[in-house]
Amino acid sequence: MRDGRRIALAAGAVMLGALGLGAIGLPWLVGTGAYAVDLSARLEPPDTAHVFGRDALGRDLLGRLCLGARTSLGIAAAAVGLSMAFGTAVGALAGWRGGWVDALVARVIDVVLAFPGLLLAIALAAVLGPSAQNVVLALAAMGWTGYARLARAQVAATKRRDFVDAARALGRSDASIVREHVLPAAFPLLLVQATFGLSGAIVAEASLSFLGLGAPPPTPSWGGMLDEGRLFMLVAPHAILVPALALATTVLALQLVGDGLRDLLELDR
After folding, report:
1. Count of CA atoms in the C-beta half-sphere (13 A) of 209
2. pTM for the predicted model, two decimal places
């Protein structure tokens, strides 16, 4: 069982590594084909020159897929990073202070969770306007609650430990105790949460881009490519299959990594 978990973790890490290398390196190899319009070659199927074919404007799908990976993965990573930072800070404050601060944070979290997450992100992105920065803010507003709840529970449980009392007896401030002793104990769980959150953020970003609320054209993104290819599903299925398979593979890899990390942490306890 343990070997199976390690294999799943390694497989997910290899898949993510390959996707990352493709997003970074392949655009240098395919040149400007990702933006070069050639209407005479629109919707051409895959061939030796264009292994994934071309889109409705004759642009190389491989190049757009790789550049779209930069957009989609970059937005998702920024959103998860912002969500994790803000949610951890709020949750740690609530768990450490307790009392009315904890009750207030808990009620705010409940109010945010009362709204369907994706609908909240769609509403915020629509109000702010279509751009990569606004998508990051919308996804962060949707995703910080999970980190806040986890950090709140971990800090509330850890602050009663003997090493915290020892640090307080040595004259350490509350901020330094939380930063140097309490949060490091919660970091592995937050990391697992961030791994699963990243897969959800990628799907959410693709959904927003599919609805026209993501990075504006001609910037490629996987959700935007799905929107462009859906009109030609019957005549050129490669135009939608390529970004759909990339999205599914990335989410699968992140789920494998998250499951592997979670199981290994449970085994180590």
Report:
1. 33
2. 0.88
Domain with residue 201: its CATH number is: 1.10.3720.10
> How far are the Cα atoms of 26, 173, 225 from residue 157, in angstroms, in the given order?
47, 19, 46
Query: Where in the sequence is the domain holding 160, given as residue range(s)?
Result: 71-239
C-beta separation of 192 from 265 below 8 A:
yes
> Within the chain, which residues score under 50 in pLDDT?
267-269
Q: How far apart are CA 160 and CA 221, in angstroms?
A: 47
- C-alpha closest to that of 49 among 62, 35, 66: 62
pLDDT at 268: 47
Asked if residue 108 is part of any domain, the answer here is yes
Question: Do 61 and 69 contact (CB within 8 A), yes or no?
Answer: no
Task: With respect to residue 228, please indicate whether it lies within any of the assigned structural domains.
Answer: yes
What is d(CA 195, CA 80) in angstroms, rounded to the nearest whole number? 9
Asked if the structure places residue 3 within a domain, the reply is: no
What is the rounded distance in angstroms from the CA atom of residue 129 to the CA atom of residue 216? 10
The number of domains in the chain is: 1
Q: How many CB atoms lie within 10 A of CB 166?
A: 12
Give Cβ neighbours of residue 238 (< 8 Å, ≥ 6 apart).
45, 46, 52, 53, 61
pLDDT in tens, 36-45: 888 888 888 8
- 147 occurs within a structural domain: yes
Cβ within 8 Å of residue 138, ≥6 positions away = 120, 121, 122, 124, 125, 128, 208
